[in-house]
Amino acid sequence: MADLTANPTVANPSHEGQVDHGHDHGHHDDHHHEETFLTKYIFSMDHKMISKQFLITGIFWAFIGGAMSLLFRLQLAWPESTFPFMETLLGRWAEGGQLSPDFYYALVTIHGTVLVFFVLTGGLSGTFANFLIPLQIGARDMASPMMNMLSYWFFFAASFVMFGSLFIETGPASGGWTAYPPLNGMRDVAINKGSGLGFDLWLTSISLFIVSSLLGGLNYISTVINLRTRGMTLSRLPLVIWALMFAAILGVLAFPALLSAAVLLEFDRLLDTSFFLNNIVINGELLAYKGGSPILYQHLFWFLGHPEVYIIIIPAMGIVSDVMSVHARKPIFGYKAMLISMLAIVVIGFFVWAHHMFVTGMSPVLGVVFAIFTLLIAVPSAIKTFNWITTLWRGNLRLTVPMLFCIGFVSLFITGGVTGIFLGNPAVDVQLHDTYFVVAHFHIIMGVAAFFGMWAGVYHWFPKMFGRHMNRTLGYIHFWVTIVSAYLVFFPMHFMTGFPRRYWSFTNFETFNTMGDLQAIITIAAFVVFSAQILFLINFFYSIFRGRPVTEQNPWGATTLEWTTPIRPGHGNWEGNIPTVHRWAYDYSTENGDVGQHVPMKEGEAEH
Amino acid sequence: MKDNANYQDQMTSENFSGDNREVAIRMHPQKLAMYISMLSMTMFFVALTSALLFKKGQDWFSFAPPALFYYSPILVVLNSFLLHRATKLYKSAQFKSFRNHLLLALLSAVGFFIVQWFTWKGILDMRLDRRVVSAAFFYVIMLMHALHLLGGVFALLVVWFMAWRSRKDELFELRNIINPKRVLAIEVLTLFWHFIDGLWIYLFLFIFFNYT
Amino acid sequence: MSAFIILSVLILLFTAFFFIGKISETSMSIRKANATEDDGDSYDDMEYVSNINGYLSLAFMVGFLFLSFYGTLHYLPRMIPKLANSIHGQELDKMFMRTYYVTAAIFLITHVVLFAFVFMYRYKSNRKAYFFSHSNTLEIIWTIIPAIAMAYLVYTGIIAWNETFTKDNSFTEYFGEDHSDKMPITMEVTGYQFGWKVRYPGIDGSLGNRVIDDEHINEFYATYSLPNELGVDWQDDSTSHDDLFVDDTVRFVKGHPAIVNVGALDVLHSFYLPHFRIKMDCVPGTPNQIKFIPLYSTEEYREILSEEAYWQEINEATGQPRWETFNFELACTELCGASHWAMQKYVKIYETMDEFYAWQDAQTPYYVSTVEPAIAAVDNPTEEVMEDEASIEMAKN
Given an 8 Å threshold on Cβ–Cβ distance, is A227 in contact with B15? Predict the structure, then answer.
């Protein structure tokens, strides 16, 4: 053991005797009569259980969304083939085994929506903010456990409505996850099948999700500010907590803008106002809508939409910073620089939204302003990247599964980040806007990279969540298959620079019908990625019930407070007093070895 | 391990008794959450009003709202004042007067609703098309504010009901002075009302300068 | 069938993976049981595991970097031809390449360093990590370097962007040259579900006015049974009488300024000419404008392409080399409904203005061919029609 496990000072000695197995089971039996199944697993107010609920709902949606992408990838790779199983699966949406354009666009829309909102916002922030904030800052629970529970149940309701919308007559929303009017501004299924009831349900679902996010965000912020244990000053907070708090702040400030857009859009749809509609001519008839502006919607949408991508990626950054530091046995390089660059991203992130709208005919002057702010964001992002790389330098890297996901994250963050430099530059963006280059960019940086952050977190904190280990070998296979095939899916999309996205088929364009073989490679790779996730799913659920039990309190030898709780902490987290914090979270490989945050300073020892 | 029900209290007392914590900002988390949600609501209305300004930059139809509209700020100022007094009265244990002030505040809120309702009807009577964007913005802003106000009315009723239920039990009321729970509820309620009242002043001025 | 085979292979693969995982886990616990001191630590083979993954990381880096650059070269011939056919397009492409060189260097260096570190510092039981928490010098260096690179890119980019999108219609100082001696072709493209209405000004060089209101669209339609979606003022504005609507091909002239008014009827569309590096959203109710100057005629561009191997290959559909049937294309890049992917039109660039005029003269204006007869049929019905109606009336009685 000696080298690898925690230095004796890391684990909390006061609980050493209690954390054996027997105690664990005893604990469960004791409380059987107090907590029913309903209060323990369903309407739980324990932040740990709520976090698991978020995680499992997120995983559910990730699989739905992923499976959808496979269906439309089949269409893209073999536009002229038929797949009889599709007709069996989708019925009238794939008559003769070919995906209908209507349903193709519905799949694209729902895929985007659920992955951006339900998986990478709800599933990522919801899981880790709930799980880590109280455990790492030394609190017994969130500031308002009740609100926390409501946050999950609003999320659940949003999921329920969205899932329901998949089965209605006119099909789910199919006007893109950005839901631009006028395509989605009128309840006219003649314009677009998904603009009928499907889109009303979509809006309802998103509004419920916004409420969930706001309730969650309020809670996360007030918990971090108010419930830190003694000694846990802001400058001693682990980076992941900062990241989750920044994401919550972004959400609390940006989601209301989306809500206002949703309200105005629903007014247009149900009450025939014309906020976003003007001079619409359909079938030779001028409709009565007058004086609105579709561009206004885009401003409101992207005022959330852009901070939203930081809401997704910042928690992943935080998770990676901390997990990397643990497994590299080194402090994160440049804690303050990391913090300041995250703050810079948060602040600048509010002033870049119109770079999604460079070709809407906006004033060139405005374009210049947004271009400058956008490229400015590259600076803090570069600082973070270099700091992660320096964290690896002269470390003693335990290449565990979570560590590999962190390294994969950095690679993806670079690959996806540099393409952002193209897109943020309006002169270059003219050609690239709404093409596969954009698809490649955002899938790599906020899709796959954020997923890698999430997996790093899941693999790292799984022992704390469920008291069991995940299977390591399956984890390694999961990682290597995923990184190779995910790159195979999204990297070649850069070669399709200038090919419009959201095309059901390229066959009637000579210009865009040149890379059929590449489309096929991408689709095959997508199937491989998805299969690797099934492996993860098996590993995840198998390990919850049958995984190797955790036998020591601090299996990774980490310094943060969550590892001072019992192996299976109950509601309230610590059995005795909450530990006091004496130092920052990154005292790895110091002169005194690895030192936990709860260990008092030795005489003469200077705080980092 | 603590029992679930007690555990809440235990958590709160642990936080604020100071035995194990260093409270960075000496504010109850619920109050802090209120402040943050106020920020969030502000962003919502800022988004709405910026949308209005964006639209105004393109083309705009101005119209004067009905005269009744100009009385609405008086009511919200009155409401804020009453709730401010009510909080003070509660803290000085004048419970009957406190309850009356709550009722008066409720009355002023209802009055505000009535004013808003007739303003709304007045605009309808102008026979403006719903599709006139300036009129539609007027409706949306009023409706969204009214929805927030409705939440406030509900909370006010709850607090009043709690106070009214324990009206006979002076001792209980007295005990509640030192129990931070009731004071907190009243403070958070007052905070929220100050916010929506202030919000209306902002919206009123905004409409005043942009519509006339 | 193939789907079934793939499925069963995948299932087999999973089962295999799963058992590999199980076995490795079991063998680990056996090893541990045999070990003299059982400490419950699951990572006592960390050195072994880190070694494997260290080498895998190295292999991944080599493979990934190789494939990413090789793939780019391999697919380069099939990408949208890299020769932009417009003055501004060539500037935008220079900007693209500048960004490409900067980012490719960053991409390469950071990846090499990242995976080299992973390999070099993989776990060794006798190594102690170096406690290195911050260094102001380093952090300042890598704040300043990206800042300088970004400043350079944004500055050059903004210049190109401003030249391309200045809002006025003049071509007096267009990328440093004066093109104002040539009268620009001002035309109009309007997107609808699912196609483009392309209107040319005709012989007089000016587009007929559009009045978007009930009278010019709905009433006109109702009166003359002829849709007038654009709201062209056929009756009061005679400049509209020579306007041409084209069905299949949008036409411009080499070296000749063009101004395109883009708009939409129903939902958002986006006017995209990939070879010209032009993209502009079509917004219902809010007209946009874009100007450009094509550099090569369709024939010249075909000649240029004929030198590339990919374009010399025989196109199976036509039986000719690809370059011979090459055409510029117009596409939609804003999701606009179920047939968003099908809004295709060809674009033709004439060698000279004369060719363009020759084409123009050969066309019949829409007013003459369609509008005038429709109006005449209602306003001055011929005797024959009146007689017909009279006979119908009589038959009813």
Answer: yes
